[in-house]
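Deliverable D5.2: sample structural annotation.
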Amino acid sequence: MRGWSLLGLWIALQVLGTGGNAADEEDEDDALIVYDEEAAGAGGGAQCTAPPGPVMVKELVEEIGHDVSEEVIERTVSALAAEGVVQTRQLLQLFPQDYDALVIPLLLKSRLRRIRERGGKIPEDMIGHKKPAEGEEEAGEGAEGTDDASSGEEGVVNEDDIL
């Protein structure tokens, strides 16, 4: 009789153990969701946050294609849209073979490849120069004037002026 009760206990533990594993799998799925507690306090409910950077592929391509023509940007965006890729996360989900098969302008394809390798983060060297605000521009001009005055000696090379 005691053997049957131990067997029953062992079976019960196995069944409960399997249920615990299913709960662990659900917890792993929930771990992919990121909640911003500060936004939850301000808005009343929990808010999901997206990774930094543009959400739409068009915005991403415009940001990294600051030095290419509008036609090249439009060809890239339309080729990606024809394949159903309109969001940055969809671009990141493409298999490498599928990405390589895309026919888009090579310069932007190479830049997008680097962004894909970094999980959607735009490298600093790809971000275009943005126009400074009016207040910043005036402050910058004043600072340049003081630099020239401080290095007023003739024949002395200021290391900051090289390159």
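Annotation notes: The two ends are 91 Å apart (CA to CA). Confidence is low (pLDDT under 50) at residues 22-35, 135-151.
The annotation will be released with the project's public dataset once the embargo ends.
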